[in-house]
Amino acid sequence: LFTYIFFNFKILKFQINYPAHAHDAEEWYFVLSGNPQWFVDGEKFTAKPGDFIHHPPRATHSMVNFQKLFI
Fold first, then answer.
1. Which candidate, 30, 32, 23, 31, places its Cα nearest to that of 4?
2. What average pLDDT does the segment 45-69 reach?
3. Which of 15, 28, 31, 59 qualifies as a FRET site for 52, CA 20 to 30 Å off?
4. Cα–Cα–Cα angle for 9, 13, 19, rounded to 5 degrees
5. Which residues contact 1 (CB under 8 A, 6 or more apart)?
6. Contacts 24+ apart (CB under 8 A), 7-11
7. Helix or strand (DSSP H, E) at 61
8. How buried is residue 11: exposed, middle or buried, by Cβ count under 10 Å (0-12/13-18/19+)?
9. pLDDT digits over 8-55, tens only?
10. Rounded distance between C-alpha atoms, residue 30 and residue 49, angstroms
């Protein structure tokens, strides 16, 4: 049995739609800034800085950023 942990840093530009997709890997996101709209298995919500978002394996997920980022 192998366990892998990957870390990735994404900046979602203004008015960019990260399209719906699903995969076998579980994912966690930590929102640093902005208020992106998030979709996970048909549930829509607005995230805020400090939120952790979980995608279970094979969950369909996407996000859209409607704010300009300040970094």
1. 23
2. 89
3. 15
4. 80
5. none
6. 11/69, 11/71
7. strand 61-64
8. exposed
9. 777 777 788 889 999 888 888 888 888 889 999 999 999 998 999 998
10. 8
